Amino acid sequence: MTLADDARRVAARLVKAVITLVGVAVVVFIVLRLLPGNQITSSLGVNAGLLTKAQYADLEHFYGIGKPLPQQFGQWAGDLLHGNMGVSEQSGRSVASLIGAALPVTLELAVVAMLIGLVLGVGSGALAAAAPGRLADRGARLLALAGLGVPSFVIGAGLVAFLASVFRYFPSSEGFASLGSDPWLNIQQIFWPALTLGLGIGAAILRTTRGAMLDVARQGYVRAARGRGLRPGVVVVKHVLRNALIPIVTMSGIQFGYLLGGTVVVEQIFVLPGLGRLLLMSVTESDYAVAQGVTLVFAAGFVVVNLLTDLLYAVVDPRLRS
Amino acid sequence: MAGLAQTGQALPSLVEAGRPGLARRLWRQPAGRAGLIILAVMVLAGLASVAGLVPDPPNAQNPLVTLHGPAAAHLFGTDQFGRDVLSRVMNGTVLSLQTALLAVAICAVFGTLGGVAAGYFGGVVSWAVTSLADLIFAVPSVLLALAIVSGLGPGWQNTAIAVGISYTPIFIRVVRGPVLTLRQADYVKAARVLGFSRSRILFRHVLPGVSGILAVQVTLALGWAVLIEASLDFLGLGPPPPAATLGLMVSEGTNIAGIAWWNLAFPAVAVVLLVLGFTLTGDGLRDALDPSSDRS
Question: In chain A, which among 268-297 make CB contacts under 8 A with chain B?
Answer without folding.
Answer: 268-269, 279-280, 283-284, 286, 291, 295
